Structures are given as structure tokens and as C-alpha cells.
């Protein structure tokens, strides 16, 4: 028997070829019973979608570009994995690119890399300026991830960083912590991740009637293990040391825990430590790390959905969508869990 065709799948499942096509394209108006029968037929026959042929008929490449700042930051690697799985499930391919957080590379992504090899772009920018999306060619679908979101410029998906930081700060306050330091904090910046998370911290302290101790809000050169370790060493040597470290990503938190161990401080006995992003390493460290867990599968799924909707529309297709993804606080050993 040669390579199975849609007609063969339809005969095996007892449905029409059109119904098989509807299932492959994930159309809503197909009963779950029919959907199951078609998927069982696909598995039984070993049918594979001819992606190249499908995209050629549609005038597309079938490729979506995903551009992230740093692949060796675990959050971006884990998010990329979810995006790639989602695009594959929908019959497309992901081209993964690392920008290094450099503006020129992020601008290249915004403009589709001046090439015809991608149908749309999902971009997590760090260096773009407020007006960088003004006048872009909106025929190239673009979805932004993270905090950069000029109003009406492109579809956008992100968690509520202010609310998330407020929740983790409230957790530390409930544990009786009062000298809470922020590693990676930013008291005076613009709307970026550090500034928004610091704002949530400030809100929680203000609601508790506590001042914001500026000496405990410590910026870092980068959000890596070594930066977290260096910041923890510095903070714990203050005349009035902190009793909790709110680290603005998990790499910083893991580095801080190492530094505390080296200096003879116990976690969580002497000091609590929390992170952001719920990367896999936080579940296996000693102690395990309390962290804010963004809905990475949900972010990936919605970003791909929005992009494919724009691609299917063949143009802008309506006003930009701004969506807030979910998050949850996971309390682990580093703050008494």
C-alpha cells in the first residue's frame, strides 16, 4: 500500500474527505465522536499531512518565526518548546531565532527579516523603543510577548506582572517578613518587566503600611545565576540585612540561594527566597524555590492562535488584541512551603 491519502482516512473512519479535512484543520463544528474516529483512522493508517502541498495551495510558507532574547535563559527555552508544539499541532513549523536582546535584531524580526520565508512572527522584545512599530507593514502578522506593547501596534500576550509580584510579596509579608529585598528591581524605569514587578512589590508594602526601603531594591546587570549570587552577597552584608529576597526571575533566585549557603545563612530559616517563571530547576534545587508560575502553555497557545488568525485573514483583520495570560504562586521550601 502506498502513502495513505485523505480519501483512505475518510473510508476507514466512515466519514467524508471534507470531514477529515475539517478535523485536520481543527474546525470547531465537528462532534467529538467524529473527531475521535478520524484521529483513530489517522493513527491506524499512519497518515501524515502533506504540509508542503497544503501551504503551496494557500500561498504560504507554513513557517512561523519565534524570536526570543536568550535561549540559555530557561524561561524562554521552555516557552519556545510550547510554541513549537502548538505550531506543529496546527500543521506549521517554527523557525526559532535568538535576538540577544539587541534592538537591531528585534527590528529585523518586526519586519520579517526582510525575507519571504515566514508567514508571521512571534516576538519577545527587550530593546525596542516606543515608536519602533510605527509605520510597520501590518500585512506581516506580529504577536508580541512580554511588557513591550505600544497601544494598537500588534497583538499582545503577557501575564499581569504587577499583580503577580504583589501576590508573592503579600505571601512574604504573611510569613512575618518585613525587610524584603528585590533582586533585579527597578524603582524608576519605564514599563519593563523589572519596573512592573517592582511596582507590585511597592503596592503590597504600601497596603501593609510599610515604607519602600530603596537600599533593598537592587538592579542587576543581567538576570542570570551569577547576578543573583552577587546581589545576595551584597544585600546580606548591609547593616540592616533583609529577611527575604524577592528575585525577579528563577535564575536570580537560584544564584541567591547558592550565595546564602556559601555565607552560612539558612533558607528559609534566616531568609526567605522567591523567584519568577517556575523553570524546571526550581523543582529540584535544595531547597525547592517558591516561584510565580506563568501559564506558559496558555501563552504559547494564545500567541499561536492570534498569529494564525491574522495569517488566515490575509491582513490586519481588525484592531490589535491585548490579552492577559494566567499565573499562580507556587509556594515551596524556600519560603516555608
Give the tags.
16% strand; 39% helix; 337 residues
Notes on the protein architecture:
This protein is α/β, with parallel strands linked by helices and 337 residues long. Helix content is 39%, strand content 16%. The chain contains eleven helices and twelve strands. It has helices spanning 6-13, 17-24, 32-45, 51-58, 74-89, 103-110, 161-174, 193-207, 225-235, 250-262, 296-313; strands at 63-68, 93-98, 120-123, 142-145, 155-159, 180-183, 217-218, 244-247, 272-276, 290-294, 322-325, 327-330. The strands form two sheets. A six-stranded parallel β-sheet has the order 2-1-3-4-5-11, with helices on both faces. It has a six-stranded mixed β-sheet with strand order 7-6-8-9-10-12, with helices on both faces. The chain is elongated and about 75 Å long. The protein starts with 5 loop residues before the first helix and ends in a 7-residue tail after the last strand.
- Measured by DSSP, the beta-strand proportion falls in 15-25%
Count every beta strand, where a strand is a DSSP E run of 2 or more residues. 12
- Specify the biggest β-sheet: 6 strands, parallel
In terms of per-residue confidence, which ranges show pLDDT below 50 for 5 or more consecutive residues? 51-57
What is the 3D form? elongated
Oligomer: single chain
Sheet with the most strands: spatial strand order:
2-1-3-4-5-11
Q: How does the helix and strand content classify structurally?
A: alpha/beta
Mean pLDDT: 91
Note the gap between the termini. Answer: 58 Å
Order of helices and strands: HHHHEHEHEEEHEHEHEHEEHEE
Q: With helices defined by DSSP (H or I, 4 residues minimum), what is the helix count?
A: 11
- Percent of residues in helices comes to 25-40%
Rg over alpha carbons: 23 Å
Amino acid at each position: 500500500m502506498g502513502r495513505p491519502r485523505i480519501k483512505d482516512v475518510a473510508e476507514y473512519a466512515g466519514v467524508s474527505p471534507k470531514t477529515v479535512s475539517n478535523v485536520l484543520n481543527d474546525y470547531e463544528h465537528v462532534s467529538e465522536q467524529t473527531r475521535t474516529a478520524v484521529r483513530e483512522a489517522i493513527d491506524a493508517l499512519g497518515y501524515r499531512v502533506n504540509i508542503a502541498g497544503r501551504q503551496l495551495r494557500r500561498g504560504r510558507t507554513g513557517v512561523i518565526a519565534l524570536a526570543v532574547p536568550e535561549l540559555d535563559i530557561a524561561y524562554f527555552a521552555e516557552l519556545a518548546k510550547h510554541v513549537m508544539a502548538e505550531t506543529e499541532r496546527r500543521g506549521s513549523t517554527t523557525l526559532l531565532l535568538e535576538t540577544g536582546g539587541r534592538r537591531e535584531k528585534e527590528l529585523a524580526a518586526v519586519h520579517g527579516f526582510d525575507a519571504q520565508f515566514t508567514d508571521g512572527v512571534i516576538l519577545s522584545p527587550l530593546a525596542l523603543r516606543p515608536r519602533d512599530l510605527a509605520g510597520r507593514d501590518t500585512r506581516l502578522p506580529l504577536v508580541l510577548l512580554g511588557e513591550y506593547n505600544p497601544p494598537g501596534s500588534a497583538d499582545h500576550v503577557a501575564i499581569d506582572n504587577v499583580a503577580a509580584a504583589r501576590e508573592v510579596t503579600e505571601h512574604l509579608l504573611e510569613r512575618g517578613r518585613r525587610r524584603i529585598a528585590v533582586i533585579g528591581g527597578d524603582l524608576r524605569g519605564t514599563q519593563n518587566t523589572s519596573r512592573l514587578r517592582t511596582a507590585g512589590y511597592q503596592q503590597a508594602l504600601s497596603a501593609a503600611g510599610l515604607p519602600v526601603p530603596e537600599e533593598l531594591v537592587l538592579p542587576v546587570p543581567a538576570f542570570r545565576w551569577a547576578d543573583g549570587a552577587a546581589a545576595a552577597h551584597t544585600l546580606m552584608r548591609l547593616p540592616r540585612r533583609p529577611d527575604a529576597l524577592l528575585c525577579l526571575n528563577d535564575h536570580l533566585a537560584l544564584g541567591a540561594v547558592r550565595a546564602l549557603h556559601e555565607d552560612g545563612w539558612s533558607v528559609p530559616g534566616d531568609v526567605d527566597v522567591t523567584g519568577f517563571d517556575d523553570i524546571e530547576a526550581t523543582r529540584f534545587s535544595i531547597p525547592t524555590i517558591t516561584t510565580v508560575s506563568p501559564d506558559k502553555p496558555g501563552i504559547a497557545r494564545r500567541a499561536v492562535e492570534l498569529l494564525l488568525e491574522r495569517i488566515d485573514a490575509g491582513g490586519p483583520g481588525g484592531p490589535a488584541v491585548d490579552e492577559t495570560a494566567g499565573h499562580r504562586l507556587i509556594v515551596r521550601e524556600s519560603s516555608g512551603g
